[in-house]
Amino acid sequence: MERTCVVLNSNDMPRSWYNLMADIPNPPPPPLHPGTLQPLGPADLAPLFPTSLIEQEVSAEPDITIPDPVLDILTMWRPTPLIRARRLEKALKTPAKIYFKNESVSPTGSHKPNTAVAQAFYNKREGVKRLATETGAGQWGSSLAFACAMFGMECKVYMVAVSFHQKPYRKALMESYGATVVSSPSTTTGTGRRFLEQDPKCSGSLGIAISEAVEDAAGRDDTKYSLGSVLNHVLLHQTVVGLEAKRQFDMIGDYPDLVIGCVGGGSNFSGLAFPFVRDKIYGRPVDFIATEPTSCPTLTKGEYRYDFGDSARLTPLVPMYTLGHQFMPAAIHAGGLRYHGDAPLLCQLVKDGLVSAQAYTQLEVFEAALLFARTEGIMPAPESSHAIKAAIDAAHRASEEGQTKTILFNLSGHGHFDMSAYTDYLEGKLTDHVMSDGELRDSLAKLEGLPNAGHEV
Ligand SMILES: Cc1ncc(COP(=O)(O)O)c(C=O)c1O
Q1: Ligand 1 center–CA 136 separation, angstroms
Q2: How far apart are the first and last CA of the chain?
Q3: Cα–Cα distance for residue pair 299/321, rounded to 1 Å
Q4: Are 275 and 246 in contact (CB under 8 A)?
Q5: Nearest to 162 by CA among 277, 351, 295
Q6: Ligand 1 neighbour 382 (Cβ under 6 A)
Q7: pLDDT in tens, 369-392
Q8: Is residue 333 predicted with pLDDT exceeding 90?
Q9: Nearest CA owner, ligand 1 atom 13
């Protein structure tokens, strides 16, 4: 029988995370304090994050030990399988080998618990009782709610309004874990009330939801803020995905020519890719594609510069590709990819040409998703389907060139909570949206006066 599924034992779990900061040729410029425009110090982050996570955020150590209580929870579903998509390959009549790392097997159905568990652990260890966060599609919110349940902590989730209405079962899942969920913008924060005054029907954005969660955490002694992507420590926690994948490729004597992941804030792409990026930095040939929606084309159309991580300008200024922190993306179904910026580490790799980026329209992504479901049997999350689309395109290119490429993508989540989106697609109700140059110009114009990427510190 041909091998399809490559599995590791619990004992083969990586014992440390990989920190790309140790090897990246050009580290990104530092985040800036929005008031002084000086590099942010650990003290500036202390109201929002516990000390251990701040230390990880600024660390340049290559390997950071995964604490035993975190490993203990991760092994509830890790190591995750590496699967060869033989039936998809057959349908595509491609000589390419397509592998995916199946992160959909976690309790909440995505890669997000990999960092949620670690963040809840460090917060709990430092005496924090309650975590506040934002969520787009609900994957991150449910993952933090799950992690808080594991450590007996309270969890408050600001859920982007459009997803709050599109995905009621995600809300039910978060509440089942014991979290409190509100639609963002909400009436519970000053930021939320301001946005609702401007537009009572505001569909929300991750930028607004982040502002609300940050305001919540900054205003209470018992609460810290938790972010599901973008920050160095979040990407660090996700590298368990790529480290496992490398071991799995070692087991079968193969290695990817191309590594693909979708990008919302950059954590699942980076988690899979960074251990392979390290190899590339040291001379091993491997390519990378970061995929995103044409309606929120941060890496492919955004400007590289300093911008706020949130809409209300409460966060530090971060060096990244951005569409502007006031950008309100179209209400596409890949709710987790509707973020105006991206992780500074990933942006630096794109800027330096180590990673390339590709945007796809909603309809071509859903078409790819259904081909995957009909061949591999797993209903993919609309977010992950951006990576599937890129893998299919790469397989077609391999067919044209007659090359046996090895392609690896991250199946960052399943789509069981996204069935209304699939219903809309099947009934022909979905449309495409491409961010126009005019929209981009207007959004970036609102950044006038902020330091640009060349800002001297
Ligand atoms: C299934 C899934 N994949 C990918 C993403 C994108 O996030 P990130 O780029 O941080 O991995 C999300 C975000 O919510 C998601 O839910």
Answers
A1: 9
A2: 60
A3: 6
A4: yes
A5: 295
A6: no
A7: 999 999 999 999 999 999 999 999
A8: no
A9: 336
**Cis amide leading into 185 (omega within 30):** yes
User: Any idea how long the chain is?
Assistant: 457
C-alpha 108 to ligand 1 mean position (Å): 12
Q: Which atom of ligand 1 is nearest to the CA of 268?
A: 11
Ligand 1 pocket residue status of 384, Cβ below 6 Å: yes
* Per-residue pLDDT tens over the stretch 399-442: 999 999 999 999 999 999 999 999 999 999 999 999 999 999 99
Cα–ligand 1 centroid distance for 263 (angstroms): 7
The mean pLDDT of 77-83, rounded to a whole number, is 98
The CB of 380 under 6 Å from ligand 1? The reply is no
Residue 179: per-residue pLDDT: 98
Closest to 266 measured CA to CA, from 299, 219, 242, 241: 299
Q: In angstroms, rounded to a whole number, what is the distance separating the alpha carbons of residues 345 and 234? A: 11
Phi, psi for residue 149 in degrees, rounded to 5: -65, -40
Report how far ligand 1's centroid is from the alpha carbon of 80 (Å): 17
Residue 295 in contact with ligand 1 by CB distance below 6 A: no
Sequence-ordered list of residues with C-beta below 8 angstroms from that of 133, at least 6 positions apart, any chain: 140, 141, 144, 155, 156, 157, 158, 213, 225, 226, 227, 228
Task: Go through the domains of the chain in sequence order and give each one's CATH number.
Answer: 5-10+66-109+233-431 (3.40.50.1100)
Distance 264 CA to ligand 1 centre (A): 5
